[in-house]
Amino acid sequence: QVQLVESGGGLVQAGNSLRLSCAASGRSFVRHAMGWFRQAPGKEREFVSAISWNGGNIRYADSVKGRFTISRDNVRNTVDLQMNNLKLEDTAVYYCAARLGVPVVSSKEYEYWGQGTQVTVSS
Asked: CA 66: distance to chain centroid?
């Protein structure tokens, strides 16, 4: 199986930046699409961003376009999420996920998940 571990979460003021990282181990990282999802209290888990195994296909939720950037390094087996101009509504637990296939927006299609990392944006 694929094990995923997120890091980089924390408390940040609105307008500032944060960089999340997800480290993968176990089965081959190559050929797995990677995604970032988030879940706020009382809400369903929602799609944030995803990237194909070769980095050629990238998708973003409308709410984060222009602010967040996803990237991956298949040598180091990591996928990052650079989060700029953070807003109060970005507060959530952020999860890294993987699937063997193309990057999709549905959380139900991802096989492997990290434990999540808390991102809290303050005013």
From this structure: 15
Rounded Cα distance between 118 and 39, Å, is 10
The span from the CA of 20 to the CA of 94, in Å, is 9
**Is beta strand 117-122 parallel, antiparallel or unpaired with respect to 10-13?**
parallel
Pairing of the two strands 68-73 and 58-60: unpaired
Q: What share of the chain is helix, strand, coil (3-state, %, to 5)?
A: 5, 55, 40
Res 27: pLDDT: 67
46-51/68-73 β-pairing: unpaired
Coil/strand/helix, residue 118? strand
Percent of residues, the chain, with pLDDT higher than 90 = 90
Q: Give, as one character, the DSSP assignment of residue 88.
A: G
**Residues 3, 14 contacting (CB under 8 angstroms):** no
Do the Cβ atoms of 23 and 77 come closer than 8 Å?
yes
- Mean pLDDT, range 48-57, rounded to an integer: 96
Summarize the confidence of residues 90-109 as an average pLDDT. Answer: 97
